[in-house]
From TrEMBL:
The keyword Metal-binding does not apply. It comes from the Bacteria. This is Heme ABC exporter ATP-binding protein CcmA. Residues 3-205 form the ABC transporter domain. The keyword Transmembrane helix does not apply. It comes from Pseudosulfitobacter koreensis.
Amino acid sequence: MELTLVDLSVARGGVPVLAGVSLSLAPGQALVLRGPNGSGKTTLLRTIAGLQPALSGQVTGAEDRIAYAGHADGLKAMLSVRENLTFWAAVFGMRDVEQAMQAFALLPLADRLAGTLSAGQKRRLGLARLLVTGRPIWVLDEPTVSLDADAVALFAGAVRAHLAAGGMALIATHIDLGLDAAVLDVTPYRVALNGVGFGSSDEAFL
Ligand SMILES: Nc1ncnc2c1ncn2[C@@H]1O[C@H](COP(=O)(O)OP(=O)(O)OP(=O)(O)O)[C@@H](O)[C@H]1O
């Protein structure tokens, strides 16, 4: 089943950011979102993932099918790498955490507390979580932040395997992942602010 956006408009802090975004993603396909800092990529991804409501328009094919990885890794600092993945696997009804650790070179760190990992290791663990969700649509916001070249290659390999298995991926990134993916620049969808500033915030925790 495809993921489809029809005429989607999104806002942050009550201020419209992007308007009229339409796209569709079929099984096996990836789409890379591009656009300057502050252009609205995160806002669009959060809306697609159901973390905030759209201003208008529709998202179809997303219900209970999205695994979202945003800027925060959302790890439990006092659980080990293996325990973090086991926790998430249980939440999503999956079991195989060993394969997820292997895919992101985490096996040597399996018993380390997540809170003691380096930034790049934490990011690898956050991305390994995608594999234990069993969800077909990966919505990823700057997934390669903190990753070294080897880890970026591991990540790109995981995305390729996910697509080959019929998964989908929507990725906001400023770097070239070497994926066979379409690219959507959000710039043409930006809403002109016409003097309206960003005075408010739409989240309790920033
Ligand atoms: N919590 C918030 N409350 C209000 N406005 C916000 C909030 N977070 C971001 N914004 C504003 O919303 C606009 C869109 O931000 P967004 O994070 O979606 O852009 P982005 O394209 O993902 O940027 P980047 O490439 O820097 O990650 C920006 O002008 C930003 O300053």
